[in-house]
Amino acid sequence: MKILAPSPAAISEAVEALKQGALVAFPTETVYGLGASAVDANALKRLYAAKGRPAEHPVIVHLSDTDQLSEWVSHIPPAAMRLAQSLWPGPMTLILPRSVRAQDAVTGGQNSVGVRIPNHPVALELLKSFGDGVAAPSANKFGQLSPTNATDVASEFRDELAIVLDGGPCDVGIESTIIDFSQEQPRILRPGMILPEQIELIAGIKLQAGLWASSKTESTRVPGGLPSHYAPNTPLEIVSGEKLEESVRSRLESGKRVCVLSFRQPERSAVWVAASNTANVYARQLYSNLRKLDQQRADVILVEAVPTGSDWDGISDRLRRAASKIANPKDGQHDK
Ligand code: TXA
Ligand code: MG
């Protein structure tokens, strides 16, 4: 595996690698993606193997231009087109009816395909030069935290990965908002930093109520079906602001090693990361903060509950999933 600073030569090398069926990790504005040619069945096999991901789990096809949409989807509802035109490139994925070109290895055998144009100059340059769809899940092993910088990508993989394009830290920090247009009424499958009210306004639609919460009861194909997604190895608990001090104290008194992610100032001997109380900044730093705390190998990571409100929904969704590892220890089988 090579880590390359972005340059025209690095992009050409990465494009060549993709054409030969190799895997290339690249930066996007949300998190780093683990890319494979979306039209190369062997490359897709390699992608699933490298990630350790079950075969029926669909991946997002990344494009550089809305002109490419018609190659991947059979139909674009006008509301989805309005979102594509006003929010792409950006942190949004649309689930649309698939074309014949979208193979089962991309769609997980479903009739729909996820597509996105990421807003990162390196990603756009790579996708444009490659000239076709790049399948890219987040560049982490299945069930682990998504990486938001090149070093975190490199720490997860060895030679199963040809190149990591280093585009610096990701600006958004949590994965794209996923909107499903494959059913009668559009709905959010995964909340992110593009908010429901923004989507409804731009698309001129009403999203199906209940949002992503309903996905928890559905099959593994829907994000959220697997609660251990986005989880650190250290057990993580979400604690309300009022109970935080007491929780930290009682753990320390019983000899536990505690780390904390909180809006407050550090306390006593716990390892403490002070989080921003601005949602955008909190999201940007979330995964690297959790990785930092995970590296402490403490007994527990206590995370102060975040405020309610749609701008925090994507964040609290990721925190809930990170915490659900405790309630669902069987999911630990997907650890490294
Ligand atoms: O921000 C992002 O979306 C990042 C960057 C790299 O673009 N990608 C990402 O990919 O988060 P991944 O594979 O880690 O998560 C994509 C989610 C999966 O949970 C998958 O189930 C869902 O999207 N997905 C993809 N295609 C789908 C489809 N046709 N129907 C339902 N869910 C789909
Ligand atoms: Mg992921």
Please, could you describe this protein's structure?
It is a single chain. The protein has 336 residues and is of the alpha/beta class. The protein folds into 2 domains: 2-217, Alpha-Beta Complex (DHBP synthase), CATH 3.90.870.10; 236-331, Rossmann fold (3-Layer(aba) Sandwich), CATH 3.40.50.11030. It has 11 helices and 14 strands. The chain has helices spanning 8-19, 41-51, 69-72, 78-87, 104-107, 121-130, 150-156, 196-203, 241-253, 279-294, 310-327, and strands spanning 2-4, 24-26, 33-37, 60-62, 92-97, 112-116, 134-135, 163-165, 177-180, 187-190, 236-239, 258-262, 271-274, 300-304. The strands form 2 sheets. The protein has a 10-stranded mixed β-sheet, sandwiched between helices. Strands 11-14-12-13 form a 4-stranded parallel β-sheet. Helix 1 crosses helix 6 and helix 10 packs parallel to helix 11 (310-327). It is globular, with a radius of gyration of 20 Å. The two termini are 18 Å apart. Mean pLDDT is 91; it is low at 214-225 and 326-336. It binds threonylcarbamoyladenylate (TXA) and magnesium ion. Threonylcarbamoyladenylate binds at residues 28, 30-31, 33, 57-60, 93, 95, 107, 110, 112-114, 116, 118, 136-138, 175-176, 178, 189, 221-223. Residues 137-138, 146 line the site of magnesium ion.
